[in-house]
Design a protein that fits this description.
protease; 2 domains; binds ligand BES; alpha+beta; single chain; 13 helices; Alpha-Beta Plaits; 453 residues; Aminopeptidase; binds manganese (II) ion; hydrolase; dipeptidase activity; Peptidase_M20_dimer; six-stranded mixed β-sheet
Length: 453
C-alpha cells in the first residue's frame, strides 16, 4: 500500500502534531482545565477537517464536548466507527515527573507526556491512518469518528449521546485504540475488559478533632475504625467478604483457563518492572487470571487527621476513603454498588457514623473473536507485526464498550498498542515512537482487510 510509505515519509510531522495535542492539558476531572479540554476538542476537529472528512463537528453535552467526524465515500461500503478519548488523567503529583507532563519530549525512543499513550497518542493514530488512506486514495470503507472528552471521569454524557444518535452512529464495526499489547515481540488483542464500581466512604466520630492524649483510648478513632472496616472486606485468601459479591461472577471453564494460560507471561519480569518482591491476590488464580477474570476491591485513596510536617497529637473527627471494585462479566455495577454501600454501612460500629456515596461505574465486556472485525484486525497484526495477536483479557475498564454492545448491537475491536511500561495514569507516562507509527500502519491495514471481508 502506498499509505505505508506515506506514513514513513510523514513520520516527523505526525509526531509534531501529536506533540501539539499533548501540550494541551485536557484534564477532564478538574474544572480548572475546562478551557483546555475544549481546545483539545477544537484541535482534533480541525485535524479531521484537514485530513479530508466530509464534516466534523463538536456536539455539546452538559460536560465536555464530543468530537464527531465522518467520511462517507459510498453508502454501500462497510462503515467503521472509531471511538477514542481526548481527555487525560490529572498529572499530579507533578514533582514525580522527570520532565513537565504537558511539555512532551522524546527520550530513548519514547514520547513522555500525560496522555502520550492514554489516549491522545493512540487516538491520534486514527486521525493519521485516515489521512494516509485518504491522501493515497486507498480508503475503501466509510469511517465515522466519535472522540469524547469525559472517558477518564466515567463517560457521564456519552451514554445519552449514543442512545440519542443511533442513526448517526450506525456502523458495521467499532474500533478502539485505548488498550495495550503484551510486548512488542508478542502483540496481543484485548478481548475482555473489567467493569467498575467506585464509592467514597466517610467515617465520622467525635464532633471535633480531639487531643489524642486526653481522649485517646476512650473515644473511637475514625481512621483506626476505617482501617478496621476496610481490612475486614478482604480475607486472608484474598477473597472479598461482602455477602453476595461473587454471586453472579461468571466462572471460566477449565478449557478457557488453559487457553488463557498459554499467553506468555514472565512473572519475574513483571515483579522486577514494578519493583516488588512478591505478587498478591486471590488464592487459586494466576496473575493473568487475577487481572483478567476475577473481581477486586481496592482503596484508591485514604485521608484524614494530620498529614503536615512534624507531628501533631490529634484524634481526628473524620476519616475518608475512595474505594473501587473491578467487576467481571455478569456482575451488575449498580447492584454491586448497592451491595458494597449497604455492607460498609452495616459494619459501622456504634462509635462512628458511616456514609457511603457512589461515584461512577460501568459494566465489564467480553469481545468475541469470531467476527469479521476481529479477523481483519488479526490479519492487520500479521501484516504489520509479522505475528498473530494473542487474545488477552485486560483488567482496565472502558464502560462504553458494554454500552455499545447493548445500545448499538456492535462489538468493538480493541486495536490498542500500549505497553505496561507506558505507565498510564502514573507520573512519566510514555508511548513508544515505534508503537505510534506501527499503530498507524496496523490501523491502515485493518481498513484494507475489513473492506475486503
Ligand atoms: N484506557 C483506559 C482503560 C484501559 C487501560 C483498558 C489499559 C485496558 C488496559 C481508560 O482510559 C481508563 O483509564 N479507564 C478507567 C475507567 C473509567 C470509568 C474512569 C479505568 O480503567 O480506571
Ligand atoms: Mn483510555
Ligand atoms: Mn485512562
Amino acid at each position: 500500500m502506498k499509505s505505508i510509505n506515506y506514513i514513513q515519509s510523514n513520520k516527523q510531522r505526525f509526531l509534531d502534531e501529536l506533540f501539539d495535542l499533548l501540550r494541551i492539558p485536557s484534564v477532564s476531572a478538574d474544572s480548572k482545565f475546562d478551557k483546555d479540554v475544549r481546545n483539545a476538542a477544537e484541535f482534533i476537529k480541525e485535524k479531521f477537517e484537514n485530513a479530508g472528512v466530509d464534516k466534523a463537528q463538536l456536539f455539546e453535552t452538559a460536560g465536555h464536548p464530543i468530537v464527531f467526524a465522518e467520511k462517507i465515500i459510498d453508502p454501500t461500503w462497510p462503515t467503521v466507527l472509531v471511538y477514542g478519548h481526548y481527555d487525560v488523567q490529572p498529572a499530579d503529583p507533578y514533582e514525580l515527573w522527570d520532565s513537565p507532563p504537558f511539555e512532551p519530549v522524546i527520550k530513548n525512543e519514547k514520547i513522555y507526556a500525560r496522555g502520550a499513550c492514554d489516549d491522545k497518542g493512540q487516538m491520534y493514530m486514527h486521525v493519521k491512518a485516515f489521512e494516509s488512506m485518504m491522501a493515497n486514495n486507498e480508503l475503501s470503507c466509510n469511517v465515522k469518528f466519535m472522540i469524547e472528552g469525559e472517558e477518564e471521569v466515567g463517560s457521564k454524557h456519552l451514554g445519552d449521546f449514543v442512545k440519542a444518535n443511533k442513526e448517526l452512529l450506525k456502523a458495521d464495526v467499532i474500533v478502539i485504540s485505548d488498550t495495550g499489547i503484551l510486548s512488542n515481540d508478542c502483540p496481543s488483542m484485548t478481548v475482555g475488559l473489567r467493569g467498575l464500581s467506585y464509592l467514597e466512604v466517610e467515617v465520622v466520630g467525635p464532633n471535633r478533632d480531639l487531643h489524642s492524649g486526653m481522649y485517646g483510648g476512650a473515644v473511637g478513632n475514625p481512621i483506626n475504625t476505617l482501617c478496621d472496616m476496610i481490612s475486614s472486606l478482604i480475607d486472608d485468601k484474598g477473597c472479598i467478604t461482602i455477602p453476595g459479591f461473587y454471586d453472579k461472577v461468571l466462572e471460566l471453564t477449565a478449557a478457557e483457563r488453559a487457553a488463557m494460560a498459554k499467553a506468555p507471561f514472565d512473572l519475574e519480569a513483571y515483579k522486577k518492572e514494578l519493583g516488588i518482591d512478591a505478587v498478591k491476590g486471590e488464592d487459586g488464580y494466576t496473575t493473568l487470571e487475577r487481572i483478567g477474570i476475577r473481581p477486586t476491591l481496592d482503596v484508591n485513596g485514604i485521608w484524614g487527621g494530620y498529614i503536615g510536617q512534624g507531628a501533631k497529637t490529634v484524634l481526628p473527627s473524620k476519616a475518608y476513603a475512595k474505594i473501587s471494585t473491578r467487576l467481571v462479566p455478569n456482575q451488575d455495577s449498580s447492584e454491586i454498588t448497592q451491595l458494597v454501600k449497604n455492607h460498609i454501612e452495616s459494619i459501622a460500629p456504634a462509635h462512628v457514623k458511616v456514609t457511603v456515596t457512589p461515584h461512577h461505574g460501568g459494566e465489564a465486556a467480553v469481545i468475541p473473536t469470531d467476527s469479521d472485525g476481529f479477523r481483519a484486525a488479526s490479519k492487520a497484526f500479521v501484516q504489520a507485526w509479522g505475528k498473530e495477536p494473542i487474545p488477552m483479557r485486560d483488567g482496565g475498564s472502558i464502560p462504553i464498550v458494554a454500552l455499545f454492545q447493548k445500545e448499538l448491537g456492535l462489538d468493538s475491536v480493541m486495536l490498542g498498542f500500549g505497553l505496561d511500561e507506558d505507565a498510564i495514569h502514573s507520573p512519566n507516562e510514555s508511548y513508544g515512537v515505534f508503537n505510534y507509527i506501527k499503530g498507524i500502519e496496523t490501523i491502515t491495514w485493518f481498513y484494507k482487510f475489513f473492506s475486503e471481508k
